[in-house]
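Colleagues,

For the teaching module next term, I've prepared a clean inverse folding example: a structure given as tokens, and then the sequence designed for it. I'd like students to try predicting residues themselves before seeing the answer, so please don't circulate the second half yet.
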């Protein structure tokens, strides 16, 4: 029981190993596809970079300073200092329609002028090839379209004034440049709306369109797109571009940033926003001072009259009572009451100012009322003490008190008026521009390295996906077992892909057995040599035909190297290049092409002249000879059959290298003379359908194939590989 479990575990481990090898094999087989997709993806990424205009970032730095007091006297005592509104409030002020609307008006951001470029490539071409020419480049001029309306250089319009009715707001209109500074404006349907001339205002009273162009730098036929946005739409667009953030926590420093494709444009917008915001802040402080000054100037006349009246009343009382002086106790009490009255008068002024802005339920007025009540209570206590004084002393105390209060309030108001006049003349806000707008040289998007990296990665993923989909659909033959099951014919040998070495690199038409005699591919052919000997026991003759289902399967490689390997065993072998159409074995063995097979069949050369020796001892060669217009008819000549009969008797083995079965009918003609027919199938190249169709062609002709040679296999990725064991190490150890 334990042994059974062990065997099952071993099979599971083998299955896992096979899956990993097959996975690696699948990836390895699709390496060129994956590489191609990476190149395509990178190319698409580069094209995206070429077509996408770079974006830049500009920023400006503002400081919002907290003031020590308000323009309105006493408001800081009540917690109502309007100069300290907080950065969150200031951010909302900057983003308000009042400021951004003024920016839109002064910079004319509601008017959009865009030269018309050739779709897809025009704008990108101009951006990447700076030119002042207004003619299309030669590389584009061959396109079968009218290129006249498109702009190619520094074409531009200077618009002084442009208004439209609400119906045409936010719509794209087309301006076409005419002769002698004339122009025409069309709507999106091509209907003429306006005709005008540079330097004069053009009007369309019916549609309420007014346009004044001061300058046109463009030739006749060039077109531009005009858009008159609504003011609200332009403000919203500007707000979407603007980003505001406080630097740090409660620092009072704001950073305004803006992204855009035009460096000068975004810097200009930021500078205008900060400038208008600064002006608004200053005017807000000046307006606050003006209102306070106006209020105090309205009170000063009445206060002066009250002070004069208090002084007159006191003088009359002294005259009448012959100069009564206050005692020390009375004088102290008077000062205390006067101080309280002065505070009450100040609160009354504050109350009058606040009542202009707030209702009586406002917290500020409620707090003021509580302070007044408290002061009034203190005054009543002081007055209760004065009631114990002599009557004349009480009257004198009251008159002295009134004069002192009225005089001090009057003088204090005069001082404040003078202060507000000076403040109004030199009003400054609490906002400072620390850094003016500067556009950074480094673009923020697109990012070339990231774009190209992502494009290459997506290309690789797509290539891998296609490779695995192809493998899942089993489009090509990838193992000997499935081929044998589908055809009921044996795979005599799997030939590994030849190693790339300094000797055989890029030497397709050279004999691998001569260059790398111990290459795994040659070793596999040595194994085929033994298998072929057993396969020919039941054959009618010693003639072997090597063919394939399609070109590029490697049949000539197999034929040439197999014949050399068999000759190494001491047998006399004749290799015949029966591909009269495109045979190249003469180049492989470095022999003359003619005379060859075609000359012998046509009776233009004797047999001894067409048989050539090679560098491999025991191996002779008959080349294909000169190409003829009717190769199939030539192979049907009796001379070809006579040739095979003669050489079959002279040699131990005759190998025929024929064209592919699906390409021409030559293999069917040649195959009836062969005792063994082997088909070369290229790994991950030929399909099972191709193989089955080729077998059907041979079977219908009465010449069934004996088996297959699976060629060009990646040995390290297959289950029939030799694991960690290599032929190189075997021969280097001298164990052959």
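(Answer key — instructors only)
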């Amino acid at each position: 029981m334990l042994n059974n479990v062990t065997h099952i575990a071993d099979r599971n481990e083998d299955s896992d190993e096979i899956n990993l090898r097959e996975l690696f094999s699948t990836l390895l087989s699709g390496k060129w596809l994956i590489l191609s997709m990476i190149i395509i993806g990178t190319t698409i990424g580069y094209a995206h970079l070429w077509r996408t205009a770079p974006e830049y970032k500009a920023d400006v730095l503002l400081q919002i300073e907290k003031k020590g007091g308000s323009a309105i006297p006493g408001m800081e005592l009540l917690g109502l200092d309007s100069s300290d509104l907080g950065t969150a409030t200031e951010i909302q002020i900057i983003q308000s329609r009042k400021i951004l609307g003024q920016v839109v008006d002064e910079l004319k951001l509601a008017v959009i002028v865009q030269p018309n470029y050739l779709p897809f490539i025009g704008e990108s071409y101009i951006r990447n090839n700076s030119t002042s020419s207004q003619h299309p480049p030669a590389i584009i001029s061959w396109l079968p379209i009218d290129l006249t309306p498109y702009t190619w250089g520094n074409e531009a319009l200077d618009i002084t004034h442009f208004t439209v009715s609400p119906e045409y707001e936010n719509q794209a209109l087309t301006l076409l440049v005419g002769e002698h500074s004339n122009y025409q404006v069309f709507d999106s349907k091509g209907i003429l709306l306006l005709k005008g001339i540079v330097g004069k205002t053009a009007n369309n009273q019916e549609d309420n369109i007014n346009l004044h162009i001061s300058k046109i730098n463009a030739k006749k036929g060039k077109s531009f797109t005009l858009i008159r946005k609504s003011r609200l739409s332009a403000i919203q667009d500007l707000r979407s571009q603007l980003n505001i953030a406080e630097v740090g926590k409660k620092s009072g420093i704001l950073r305004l940033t803006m992204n855009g494709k035009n460096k000068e444009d975004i810097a200009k917008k930021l500078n205008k926003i900060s400038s208008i915001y600064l002006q608004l802040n200053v005017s807000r402080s000046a307006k606050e001072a003006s209102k306070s000054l106006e209020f105090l100037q309205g009170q000063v006349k009445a206060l002066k009259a009250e002070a004069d009246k208090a002084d007159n009343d006191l003088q009359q009382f002294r005259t009448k009572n012959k100069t009564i002086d206050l005692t020390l106790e009375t004088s102290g009490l008077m000062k205390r009451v006067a101080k309280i009255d002065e505070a009450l008068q100040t609160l009354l002024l504050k109350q009058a100012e606040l009542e202009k802005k707030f209702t009586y339920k406002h917290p500020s007025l409620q707090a003021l009322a509580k302070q007044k009540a408290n002061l009034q209570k203190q005054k009543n206590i002081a007055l209760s003490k004065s009631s114990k004084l002599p009557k004349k002393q009480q009257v004198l105390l009251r008159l002295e008190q009134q004069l002192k209060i009225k005089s001090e309030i009057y003088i204090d108001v005069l001082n404040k008026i003078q202060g507000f006049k000076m403040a109004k003349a030199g009003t400054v806000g609490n906002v400072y521009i620390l850094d003016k707008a500067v556009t950074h040289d480094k673009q923020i998007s697109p990012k070339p390295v990231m774009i190209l990296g992502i494009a290459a990665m997506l290309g690789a993923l797509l290539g891998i996906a296609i490779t695995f989909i192809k493998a899942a659909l089993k489009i090509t033959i990838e193992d000997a077992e499935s081929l044998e099951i589908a055809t009921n014919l044996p795979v005599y040998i799997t030939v590994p892909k030849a190693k790339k070495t300094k000797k055989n690199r890029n030497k397709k038409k050279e004999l691998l057995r001569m260059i790398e005699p111990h290459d795994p591919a040659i070793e596999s052919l040595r194994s085929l040599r033994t298998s072929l000997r057993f396969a020919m026991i039941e054959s009618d003759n010693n003639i072997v035909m090597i063919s394939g289902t399609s070109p590029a399967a490697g049949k000539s490689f197999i034929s040439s190297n197999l014949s050399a390997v068999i000759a190494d065993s001491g047998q006399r072998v004749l290799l015949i290049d029966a591909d009269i159409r495109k045979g190249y074995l003469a180049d492989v063995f470095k022999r003359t092409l003619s005379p060859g097979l075609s000359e012998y069949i046509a009776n233009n050369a004797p047999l001894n002249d067409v048989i050539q020796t090679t560098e491999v001892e025991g191996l002779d060669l008959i080349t294909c000879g000169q190409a003829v217009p009717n190769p199939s008819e030539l192979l049907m000549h009796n001379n070809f059959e006579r040739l095979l009969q003669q050489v079959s008797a002279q040699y131990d083995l005759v190998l025929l290298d024929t064209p592919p079965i699906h390409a021409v009918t030559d293999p069917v003609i040649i195959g009836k003379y062969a005792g063994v027919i082997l088909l070369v199938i290229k790994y991950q190249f030929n399909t099972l359908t191709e193989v089955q169709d080729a077998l059907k062609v041979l079977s219908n002709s009465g010449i069934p194939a004996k088996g297959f040679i699976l060629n060009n296999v990646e040995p390290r990725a297959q289950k029939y590989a030799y694991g960690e064991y290599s032929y190189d190490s075997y021969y280097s150890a001298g164990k052959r």
